[in-house]
Amino acid sequence: MNLELPGTVTDFAASAERALRDAGGTALHRHAEEQPGWRGERIGPLLLQLGVADLDPRRDVESALCAAELCRLAGRVALPYPVEAALGCPPVDGARLGALVDRRDAWVEHADLPGPWLGVALDGTARPARPVPTDRNRTLAPFVHRVDLGEPVAEVDEGGRALLMDLPSWRILGALERALELAVAHVKERRQFGRPLAEFQAVQFHLVDAEVAVRGLRQLARFTTWRLVAEPAAAMADALALRSYALESARTVLAVADLLHGALAFCDEHDLTVLTRAVHAPLRLPVDLERTTELLVEAVDRHGFDGLFHHAADGRGGGGRAAGPTLARRS
Amino acid sequence: MDFELGPAADALRVHLRGLIARHLPPDFLGGFTDDPEDLETTRRFCKMLASQGLLTPTWPDEYGGRDASVWEQTVLREEMWAHHEPRGPQYMSLNWVGPAILRFGTEEQKRYHLPKMAGGEALWCQGFSEPDAGSDLASLQTTARPDGDGWVVSGQKIWTSYAQVADWCVLAARTGPPDSRHLGISLFLVPMDRPGIEVRPIRSMLGPHHLNELFLDQVEVRRDELLGQENGGWAVMRGVLAFERVGIARYARADRLLDAVRAAVGGLEAMPPGLRARFARAMVHTRVARLVAYEVIGAQADGHGDDGAAAAARIASVTGDQEVSEVLVEAIGGAVFDSAPAAETHLQAAVEDYWRYSRSATVSAGSVDIQRMIVARSVLNGAT
Question: B85 by DSSP, 3-state: which?
């Protein structure tokens, strides 16, 4: 058991964080909203400099964690670029960007950027995806586009789908970490009733709810990503569990951050607004919390949910369940 | 990064499950039931564990341990708690009384007490809470008045688990002035048969032995029974209670019963839609509770544990425990009423027991709101 991120991963993350900060942080998102074409011109090359083209999260645990950390850092600054789609794109001829889609209602973030794009349905069928011009309100998830899906070109296995499910959860983690940091800074500074908000226990307990959620999400994200590479037997159940927890945590953390910031939370000038609007895409796509949970239910019934707790090792030479009780009904 | 517990810990898990299967009755629900034989089972089980060096495995060899890793200790805690804690009250010896003596005790205290704990020969209780000092423990009023080379202790304790059966008590008493709060508290290692100690059980839905009152009337305490420094009891408590916060592997029983109930009712998809979603999320929350506990255990083993992380892990653990108790009961439905202690109804009895006991999860060993205060302090001071 070693729960520390490897040095290569922390070094990579530190240089990526520096590069994103030096490039402007959340200002990148504001700029891209004004000039959407700027994403490909400016941010694509920035990520290439960080070595994204050579980063294959399927290679080993370290590569997977580097990819995951990059997604987390992208979430922290609401980076307007499909990092997960580039990192997690299945190895299908010609495809450069890939995303999971709900075939009944297919939307993809940044689908207007040059691909070619691959839309991977939840059953694994992969199809070319092309954006459909829509005149939508772009306040929430401003870079999301409805897509048309072509004829199937490949089948993506469960591990490949699990990776596409896993990486966006890291972006959500990054957004939530940053939202909590902003809330902590704000309640230390903002004074009401003659003292900082941070001195009110009601305020403190809100922060604790958010902190417990973020801490848990961080550990679950690391565990899940490690397991997708090291022990991928139940990859989809693991990735869905992570997504389900990420979506639940987002409800808690964003609600706390909004509440503690007051009306400032909704003002365009504040970074919290940018984070909230940007993270809406990975929160809703490919499916939201209720549908994610339904998929988790199916996956758990199919694969079980042992994790680190091996129910089958019963000390009687393997096989049966530990002291496996049944539900008896006495007549 | 590697989440595998390692071959020694994995082998220990299998070995412990074998011991459980062979030495516990199939309807075992812990030592604190209305059947006195269950408590006897825990005594025998502890002796058997002790004979294999498994009661206090992480302690140094010279005090009855076998220098095992924290991950082996974690597996021990998980398997014991998952199977209704067949060590009875003796889990406390491993979790914090023993570590407190190891860290703060005199050599004489270590040599006297630790081998007894390691051998499964001593039951301990903890005399901390008082009628007017619960979460605000620093306001405790039980007084240790200097008398010759020792003290005379008078006062009242309450909620003292296992006091009826304990041989020894870690007793907190005020040795400083009445207003000295946490700077005037000392801890004593006192035998429960000392004249002046009276125990009165408090009946509760948790079962016998969980709650007692402890009356102390002119109890003589010797200087060599002082644990740590005079007026230094708070430092001892702070030093070891962070370990206690991850000392009970609640997630392990949750995990085991979630799996068993899911299988027993025919899978999640056999449950009503609303329930199966909540049940699945409870499974995820249980996984998270385990992982945040592991984070704390790993950090403590490396010598850089922090109070905020330990308190956050405890919040995840105890709130998850109550969430799990609800979905378990809902999943088995009316069977929860049909829970007489018998092998064939063991699962519903286990669920019924789980629900009752989980009521105390957010209260016992420091209320969850105190843990929230600790996390808040940590977050606002930037320690996380």
Answer: coil
